[in-house]
């Protein structure tokens, strides 16, 4: 089976812009979770989608949003970018949300 | 609230030596437990997992971990380290229950350096 894929791998944006990141889970997996990884805060959970519904959410501002499509692919959007949003954004898929999660390679976002 | 502590930020071992990375968690019940490894600029690769049952679990690349409920620990071990094991290692906890779906809480990570 193909693994989790994320596009794009690298992004450079300026403050105030918005960005959309994409994640394709492992075939058959219906749960997609998103994480932000920074040197200072480590790995932090953003949200989880299952069957096109957000089931769980972390403590991030409303500028961070996501969605999931009927084929389980997911996107996350960050609006009004801030310098502090620079991070590696990781997507993970699992069969149900209670199993082990398999991670993609991440999208490195740099905000200038 | 759940939390995960990896007491060692950085560990250096000689190639061929044994390795133990420590992980302690805080959670009211028995959680799901995981160890992941991350190479620079890459995503996380699952090494092993514990859900229930046998407290000693085997993973990939010769790693094993032992769940000790009394100590709230899930330490990762490898009997003989290879230079390719140099990476960052993360312990993670997943909570049971419908309000905790898809969420893992990670420790701060331990960077492993391997000396030739």
Describe this structure in words.
The complex is a heterodimer of chains A (112) and B (116). Chain A is mostly beta strands and 112 residues long. Chain A has no helices and 11 strands. In chain A, strands 2, 4, 5, 6, 9, 10 and 11 form a 7-stranded mixed beta sheet that branches. Chain A has a 4-stranded antiparallel beta sheet with strand order 1-3-8-7, with no helix packed on it. The model of chain A has no long low-confidence stretch (mean pLDDT 95). Chain B has one domain: Immunoglobulins (Immunoglobulin-like). Helix content of chain B is 0%, strand content 51%. Chain B has no helices and 12 strands. The model of chain B has no long low-confidence stretch (mean pLDDT 93). Classes of the chains: A mainly beta (112), B mainly beta (116). Chains A and B meet through strand 4, strand 5, strand 9 and strand 10 of A and strand 5, strand 6, strand 10 and strand 11 of B.
Any descriptors?
heterodimer; A: 112 residues; mainly beta; four-stranded antiparallel beta sheet; 11 strands; B: 116 residues; Immunoglobulin-like; globular
Q: What can be said about this structure in brief?
A:
Chain A is 0% helix and 54% strand.
Number of strands of chain B: 12
Report the β-strand fraction of chain A as a percent range. over 45%
Mean pLDDT of chain A: 95
- Distance from N terminus to C terminus of chain B (CA atoms, Å) equals 41 Å
CATH architecture of chain B: Sandwich
Q: The CATH topology of chain B is what? A: Immunoglobulin-like
Which pair of chains has the greatest number of interface residues, and how are they split between the two chains? A-B, 29 and 25 residues
| Tally of discrete structural domains of chain B | 1
Helicity level of chain A: under 10%
Overall form of chain A: globular
Radius of gyration of chain B: 14 Å
What letter string, H or E per element, gives the SSE order of chain B?
EEEEEEEEEEEE
Beta content of chain B = over 45%
Uncertain regions spanning at least 5 consecutive residues of chain A: none
Quaternary status: heterodimer
Q: Tell me the number of strands of chain A.
A: 11
Low-confidence stretches of chain B: none
């Amino acid at each position: 089976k193909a693994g989790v894929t994320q596009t794009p791998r690298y992004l450079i944006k300026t403050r105030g812009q918005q960005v959309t990141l994409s994640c394709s889970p492992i075939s058959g997996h219906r749960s997609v979770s998103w994480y932000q990884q920074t040197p200072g805060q480590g790995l932090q959970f953003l949200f989880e989608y299952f069957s096109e519904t957000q089931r769980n959410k972390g403590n991030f501002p409303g500028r961070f949003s996501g969605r999931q499509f009927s084929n389980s692919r997911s996107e996350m959007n960050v609006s009004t970018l801030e310098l502090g949003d620079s991070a590696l954004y990781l997507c993970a898929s699992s069969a149900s949300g209670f199993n082990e999660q398999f991670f993609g390679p991440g999208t490195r976002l740099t905000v200038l | 609230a759940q939390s995960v502590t990896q007491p060692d930020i950085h560990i250096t071992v000689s190639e061929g030596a044994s390795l133990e990375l420590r992980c302690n968690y805080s959670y009211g019940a028995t959680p799901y437990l995981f160890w992941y490894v991350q190479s620079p600029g890459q995503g996380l690769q699952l090494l092993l997992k514990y859900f229930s049952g046998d407290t000693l679990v085997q993973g990939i690349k010769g790693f094993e971990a032992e769940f000790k409920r009394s100590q709230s620990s899930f330490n990762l071990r490898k009997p003989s380290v290879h230079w390719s094991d140099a990476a960052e290692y993360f312990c993670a906890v997943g909570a049971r229950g419908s309000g905790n779906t898809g969420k893992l809480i990670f420790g701060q990570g331990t960077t492993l350096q391997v000396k030739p």
